[in-house]
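Example 3.2
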Amino acid sequence: MKTTLARPETATHDWKIVDATDQILGRLAVTIANALRGRNKPIYTPHVDTGDYVIVLNADKIKLTGSKEDQKKYMFYSGYMGGEKYRTVSDFREKRPEFIITNAVKGMLPKNKLASAMLKKLKVYRGSEHPHEAQQPSPLI
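Structure, written as tokens:
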């Protein structure tokens, strides 16, 4: 029996939709990352992008366990001395809740050029409206 490897021209990309309301951030990010990579498909090949497009709704209603809401910090560095800035999850929840999910998923993807192509297939929205109705997304979970 021969092992068949997927090729970029034969891979099909479906559209999946997820509602992030009251879901735990890490557990949701794992399922999204696996769908973006294509690990839930039988044709999964590590060096080919076989994953699906994923739409995440209600990013501002994601849940974190424990006291991570105030204790978890994201660090940004400008490159200059003293140019470190720290922001908490509650700061991002008010201004850019899409960043919380995108950053968690990005950390779970491989660290190579293929990961940037996979991350472009992730569409995260603050509310329950999205402009991808024409693609007829099916539920992921």
